[in-house]
Write a structure and sequence with these properties.
Layout: E1 4-8, H1 13-23, E2 29-34, H2 38-50, E3 54-57, H3 63-69
Length: about 70
């Protein structure tokens, strides 16, 4: 099994660059946590899923959401 790396805010400018960098390194399982605004859900989330990235939608300020993501 590969280690799971959780990226919070992956649909933002910096977070998206972090995800791109992680994808360039084999041997990692990537999971993203994002608020999931509708425009991002339609455009970026399907791309993440096609690349094998787990997507969790929710608010990072919510303890239960972060627990679910982890």
């Amino acid at each position: 099994l590969y280690p799971v790396i959780l990226v919070v805010g992956a649909t933002g400018t910096v977070g998206n660059k972090v995800v791109e960098g992680l994808l360039a390194q084999p041997g990692k399982q990537i999971r993203v946590l994002s608020r999931g605004k509708s425009d991002w859900r339609e455009n970026l989330f399907p791309s993440f899923r096609r690349q094998g990235i787990d997507v969790v939608v929710g608010d990072a300020r919510s303890e239960s959401t972060v627990e679910r993501a982890m």
